[in-house]
């Protein structure tokens, strides 16, 4: 049975084309030894060659009934200028009037498609609106404000041209993640610039161009990344960009520098350590939440990096990058590949460690446990003695990290879509494919949930272990767990041993028919406030059913 909508965020699943990975040297195994490369400062910078699963593009799993493989997420909303594609007029969104709920759609200035929601410490609510940009529901207001590149959003890094100028070529804006910081401040994640079919993506352009002996396209490899955005008294924005890369002369096997992370799927802010954590394509990274964008002029030195006196350091970006709980895999022709991609799960523990959940593996990044030493924590995710910290939640058919490495048929990829911490230190994990799982603080599986979820329909799916779930959040007021459906959406709240459905009767058909892009908790006051991003979708007639921000303040 076909659904009456289509999602245009098709994930390149485990059968994806193998693309160029980290480093220009090609594919060595991901975890062959314990001797991570060390940069000139003595900080570990492990070699990161190989191949990964990803295309670095917008990639949320696709759950079409016709394919039998879960699909998901808000459709792409238009051109790279942020203008919706021409087409039939949007469907008029009917906002529910359910007690305990309040909704904000296009009628209140919201975007057509919602990718993420978050509140800052002042109770202002920020919405990622895809190609339309960034939206703000300021505390006490009832209409959303709208911001684009014209207001200072900066979805691209800067060039080593002597002055830190923008890359050449067209700029691409697509806001896909947000995380509130201090009052009036939000951290904003972007998708990397799309490319023509068959061309290297923003994840691969830097390395592939070098392999092909041509100049890399900076409009591609410098696209995406993240901003710190602060609302000023006069209503304008102050924007600081995080150029998520490593410059020259820092990584022993990538002396020309590396440009791998560009699409930022999830962000989390930790005020205890002034950290902002970025879950991206290929891996994850840490930003300095207090970074003000003022850097030494030598950061943009245009000279060849091999010239004596050339300098680059991490102060130039305010970022330390990148880490991944990667494993080795085998291709159909017997080659070795690095398996890592799409870190949608980010959850901060009470001691400032961070759980990251990816398409293949998850990890507890022991940042706080190592006195906020990023490089030491990196070892405990990537190095061979810590193989148990490359967490396989929905276990592969074939276990082990030695040769022969697992093939696609040997794997059951986890496709993590979100993570959320419980007060007891457990972490709840949502999967675009498999439903929910609960992990202990050390990452041990405590159980899974499928049949209680509102979008669990084994008769229609033919796969009774699957309950596509795109969002999860633990309610700090009562410990209940909120889970959002990844197709035929709806919300399930697990509370006191019961499952409370928020489906057609609560939300209405237009909301339930699509996906739940995000669920977050507004902790700015003592009263419950659950933020829900309803993604929006495109019907088979080409008409858009817009998304919306939902706020729950009930019991």
Question: What's the quaternary structure here?
Answer: single chain
- Taken from the alpha-carbon principal axes, the silhouette is globular
Counted up, domains total 1
Report the major sheet.
4 strands, antiparallel
The helical percent reads: under 10%
Pairing-aware structural class of the strands and helices? mainly beta
CATH superfamily: YVTN repeat-like/Quinoprotein amine dehydrogenase
How many angstroms separate the termini? 36 Å
- CATH architecture call: 7 Propeller
Largest sheet: spatial strand order: 4-34-31-30
Q: Could you tell me the number of beta strands?
A: 34
Q: How many helices?
A: 6
Poorly predicted runs: 1-21, 23-47, 49-84
CATH class: Mainly Beta
Average pLDDT: 86
In terms of DSSP E residues, the strand content is 25-35%
According to CATH, the fold-level topology is Methylamine Dehydrogenase, Chain H
Structural key phrases:
single chain, 6% helix, 6 helices, globular, 34 strands, four-stranded antiparallel β-sheet, 555 residues, Methylamine Dehydrogenase, Chain H, mainly beta
Overview in brief:
This protein is mostly beta strands and 555 residues long.
Describe the 3D structure:
Helix content is 6%, strand content 28%. With 555 residues, the chain is mostly beta strands. The protein has a single domain (5-552), classed as YVTN repeat-like/Quinoprotein amine dehydrogenase (Methylamine Dehydrogenase, Chain H), CATH 2.130.10. The strands form ten sheets. Strands 4-34-31-30 form a four-stranded antiparallel sheet, with no helix packed on it. β32 (537-539) and β33 form a beta hairpin. It is globular and about 70 Å long.
């Amino acid at each position: 049975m076909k659904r009456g909508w289509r999602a245009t965020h098709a994930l390149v699943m485990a059968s994806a084309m193998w693309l160029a990975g980290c480093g220009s040297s090609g594919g060595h195994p991901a975890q062959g030894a314990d001797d991570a490369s060390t940069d000139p400062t003595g900080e570990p910078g492990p070699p990161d060659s190989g191949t990964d699963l990803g295309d670095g593009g917008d990639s949320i799993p696709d759950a079409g009934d016709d394919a039998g493989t879960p699909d998901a997420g808000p459709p792409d909303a238009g051109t790279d200028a942020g203008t919706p594609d021409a087409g039939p007029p949007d469907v008029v969104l009917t906002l529910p009037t359910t007690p305990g709920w309040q909704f904000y759609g296009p009628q209140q200035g919201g975007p057509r498609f919602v990718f993420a929601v978050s509140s800052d410490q002042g109770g202002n609510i920020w919405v990622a609106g895809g190609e339309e940009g960034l939206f703000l529901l300021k505390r006490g207001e009832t209409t959303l404000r709208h911001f684009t590149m014209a207001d200072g959003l900066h979805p691209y890094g800067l060039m080593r041209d002597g002055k830190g100028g923008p890359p050449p070529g067209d700029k691409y804006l697509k806001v896909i993640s947000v995380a509130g910081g201090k009052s009036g401040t939000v951290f904003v994640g972007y998708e990397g610039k799309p490319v023509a079919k068959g061309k290297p993506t923003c994840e691969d352009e830097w390395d592939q161009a070098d392999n092909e002996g041509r100049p890399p396209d900076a409009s591609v490899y410098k696209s995406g990344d993240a901003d710190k955005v602060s609302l000023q008294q006069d209503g304008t924005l102050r924007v600081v960009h995080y150029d998520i890369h490593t410059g020259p002369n820092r990584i022993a096997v990538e002396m020309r520098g590396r440009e791998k992370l560009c699409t930022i799927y999830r962000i989390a802010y930790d005020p205890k350590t002034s950290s902002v954590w970025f879950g991206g394509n290929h891996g994850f990274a840490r930003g300095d939440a207090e970074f003000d964008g003022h850097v030494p002029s030598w950061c943009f030195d245009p000279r060849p990096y091999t010239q004596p006196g050339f300098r680059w350091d991490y102060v130039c970006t305010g970022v330390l990058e990148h880490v991944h709980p990667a494993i080795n895999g085998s291709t159909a022709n017997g080659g070795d590949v690095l398996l890592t991609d799409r870190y949608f799960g980010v959850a901060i523990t009470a001691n400032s460690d961070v759980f990251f959940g990816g398409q293949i593996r998850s990890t507890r990044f022991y940042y706080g446990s190592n006195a906020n030493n990023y490089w030491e924590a990196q070892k405990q995710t990537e190095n061979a003695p810590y193989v148990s910290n490359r967490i396989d939640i929905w276990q592969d058919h074939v276990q082990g990290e030695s040769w022969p490495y697992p093939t696609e048929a040997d794997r059951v990829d986890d496709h993590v879509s979100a993570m959320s911490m419980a007060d007891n230190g457990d972490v709840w994990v949502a999967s675009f494919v498999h439903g929910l799982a609960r992990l202990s603080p050390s990452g041990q599986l405590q159980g899974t949930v499928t049949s209680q979820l509102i979008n669990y329909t084994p008769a229609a799916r033919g796969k009774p272990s699957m309950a596509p779930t795109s969002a999860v959040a633990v309610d700090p007021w009562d410990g209940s767990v909120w889970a959002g459906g990844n197709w035929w959406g709806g919300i399930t709240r697990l509370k006191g041993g019961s499952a409370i459905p928020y489906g057609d009767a609560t939300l209405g058909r237009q909301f339930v028919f699509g996906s739940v892009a995000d669920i977050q908790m507004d902790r700015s006051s003592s009263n419950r406030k659950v933020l829900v991003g309803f993604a929006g979708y495109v019907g088979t007639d080409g008409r858009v059913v817009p998304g919306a921000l939902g706020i729950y303040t009930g019991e």
